[in-house]
Each structure stands twice: as structure tokens, then as C-alpha cells.
Amino acid sequence: MKISIGNDHAGTGYKEMIKDKLEGMGHEVTNYGTNSDDSVDYPDFVHPVAEDVENKKADLGIIICGSGNGANMTANKHQGVRSALCWNVEVAKLAREHNDANVLSIPARFVAEELAKDMVETFVNTDFEGGRHQRRVDKIPAKKYCS
Questions:
Q1: Mean pLDDT across the stretch 40-45?
Q2: Would the pTM count as exceeding 0.85?
Q3: Phi-psi map region of 131: left, alpha, beta (phi>0 left; psi -120 to 50 alpha)
Q4: Torsion of CA 66, 95, 89, 5, to 10 degrees
Q5: How buried is 143 (Cβ within 10 angstroms: 0-12 exposed, 13-18 middle, 19+ buried)?
Q6: CB neighbour burial string for 89-121, b if at least 16 within 10 angstroms, e if fewer
Q7: Active-site residue numbers?
Q8: Which is it for the CA torsion 70, 40, 6, 56, positive or negative?
Q9: CA pair distance 112, 116, nearest whole angstrom
Q10: CATH class name, domain 2-146
Q11: Domain extents for the chain?
């Protein structure tokens, strides 16, 4: 699976750990994140991840910032991106199963590293259930809802 990952300064350590885990699982990882703890602007590192998912250059994306909120908001501006801000394994699993989330947003300052790794593994290994959830996902884009 192809996975793009991006982070700001708050997520550099998490990104490295997650990147190593994903590569160890056999996934191809594209790193758009900063490799430094120096302050940067998260959109500069999130937009490339969302563009990869939007343009089908990546199957999934993982984005990491301090609260996860800014990164999540940025990613969700892209058509076809369904980014989910997750803080535990169950939420990550449901985001995939029920919402067909294709980007995982991790709040580095609010989840432990081990939990972040577990969320990533769950997110990557969980499939969308479809069925009744599909009609809801189909209504997410504003243009479909408004027509």
C-alpha cells in the first residue's frame, strides 16, 4: 500500500516512528513532513499528503500536528479526502469502517507514541464496511448534499 505522511514540528518524532512501522509492515511511505523541531506551518506539510490521496497517488494519508485539528481541517479542504481526527484505536477503526476515512490525523501532544502506532496499524488494516454507511459517505461532499 502507498501511504503519504506529513507533519509539523510537533509531530516529527511521531512521524519517524510511524514511518519506520509502516515500512516494516511492507508499505511504501512518502514523507512530506518536516524533519526538524523548528516551528513550521502545518498546511505546508499537510496539503501534499491530501493532494496525493486526492489524486490517487497514495491509498491513505497520515498527518500529525500538535492537536491534530489544524492538520485535519487542512486535509478536509481537498475533494475526496475524508480525514479523521482520532485519539484512540476504536475511533480510528470506526473512521475506516463507517466513514471510509482515507487520512488519519494524529494529535501528537495528546496521544502517547505507543497509542499512535496502534491507531496507525488499526487504520491501515481496517476496511470500509460499505452497506448503509456508503449512502452516508456519498452525502459528505457539499455539492451532493445541496443538489
A1: 98
A2: yes
A3: left
A4: -50
A5: exposed
A6: bebbbbbbebbbbbbbbbbbeebeeebbbbbbb
A7: 65, 98
A8: positive
A9: 6
A10: alpha beta
A11: 2-146
